[in-house]
Every structure is written in C-alpha cells, then in structure tokens.
Amino acid sequence: MRRILALVLLAGVVTACEDVIEVEVPSEAPRLVIDAIIRVDTRQAFIQPEIRVTQTASFFDGVQPVSNITQMTLAALNENGTGQEFMVLEETEPGSGIYQDPEPFPVDTLLSGPLILQIEHENRLYFARTEFVPSVEINRLEQGDDTLFSEDDTEVIVEITDTADQENFYVFDFGFSEFLTVQDQFFNGQTFEFSYFYDEELETGQELQVSIMGADQGFFDYMTLLIEQTQNDGGIFETPVATVRGNIFDVTDLDNDQVVDNVSQPDVFPLGYFAVVQEFKANLTIQK
Questions:
Q1: For residue 111, what is the enclosing H or E element?
Q2: Structural domain containing residue 54
Q3: 3-state helix, strand, coil in the chain (%, to 5)
Q4: What is the pLDDT of residues 27-47, one digit of tens each?
Q5: Which InterPro entries does the entry mention (predicted)?
Q6: How many folded domains does the chain comprise?
C-alpha cells in the first residue's frame, strides 16, 4: 500500500511541475567572434596565417562558423606606417569559418612595423592593429610526481630563461584549452621554473605539447581575464559577469581608421583578439 501511495504522490508532483516550470535563458544579439591569434615560428621562412571567424548564436547553440565575409586583409606596414606587404585571406573550405591566404607569406615581413587587420562583414567594417611580440624558448619540460588537489592530478615542470632588462609577458598553452599567463615581475632576466597541474590522470604514453607565446600588456590582460571567466565552475545557466573585450573594433561609423576606439558606441564591438606572437613548443610523453 505504501508503494502505491508513493507512486501516486510522485505522479502528482510530476504533473504539477509540467505546468509551472519556465526557463528564461540569457538573450543577446548575435556578435562576431574573431580569433586572430597568429603564432609565428621565426625559424620558418614562410607562414600561412589562419584566422577563425564565428558568430554567437542562441544560448544553447554556442557559436557558428561565419562564411559570408566580404573581405579580409592583413597588411604589414613599414615603421613609418606606409604599406609594405598585404595578404587577402579566403575561406579554406565552405562553411568552415577558417580563413587563410592561399599563398605563403614571408615571416620576416611580420617581425617589424605595425600590422593591420581589416574585415568586412554584412556592411560592417572591423579594424585591429598590433605588432609582433617575441618570446623565449622552453628550456625544459618534464613530468613531476607531486599533486595539487587530487591524486589524479598530473604535474608538469616548465623552465624558461627570461630576457633581461625589459618587461616581458608570456602566455602558455598547455593543450585541452588550458592556458596560463605569466609576467616576469619577480624573475626578470633569470631562469624561472614552475609546476602546472592537469586536474586529471593522463594516460601512460600520451603525448603532450606545451607552447609559450610572447605577449604585450594588452594581450596578457585579455588572456588573464578570459582564463578567469572560463575557469569558473558555474552551472549552465550562469553567465559571465562581463564580456571580455579584445582589441578589434567596429569602425564602420568612424571617420577614418586612425581612430581605433568607439567610445561613443560602447555596445558596438566584436569579440576576439588580434595578436602576432612568436611561439616555441616542447613535447612530453607521459610516463607511468
């Protein structure tokens, strides 16, 4: 008898829930997302920069590739600001949202002088400006034995030697969409070693690739904020406190491209960042 009564009560609860549950999800107009972080291996003579363009969709659909870019150009200027070289980027495959210049571009051209990115999409013009930022190599990458929060943690030990007499910023890419920002405030010009912990037990024989990128203050700050927001363990209905804005501007309504700030239109901007940085990589095979 108790079992029957419990089932009846449960049925009543379910029926009631069907009538009252209403979920209101966050709503925002679609926004362009431009991933223009160009990693440069200066040991190579040529490069084919890759830029990914997506657009935010509904709350549950995430981002969608953008294929209807009218024009995308990347220009490398002389130190005096005049034109030197430029490339026209085209979508590699229809529907991919990935854009490249079909022809390789000389790496040396990217290493000095301003770099200008311009994108035209649905009658809007987007503009960004940056300069190449060098990095240092990874001296040593090895597996450690320590753990941080769980026995399943995997420790990797990284060592670099900082360039002296200048302020340096670095962005580490540990794979699995895990990044770390580092400033040389306390180890300027010195050899620096630190541990990074993956919060899971990696498989024996698994190959890891860790890379280090140079960064200027703007890119460092952007990545730091991005890491802080994406590492919060919130529920699926939790939205970021603030949108992380990059250095790409909507300049459609500005008089000229020398003005790279739209303070009069604070809500008109794409997401993403434009940076051209030196990258070094190191590989590690996970041991038992």
A1: none
A2: 32-134+243-277
A3: 15, 40, 45
A4: 567 889 999 999 999 999 999
A5: DUF4249
A6: 1
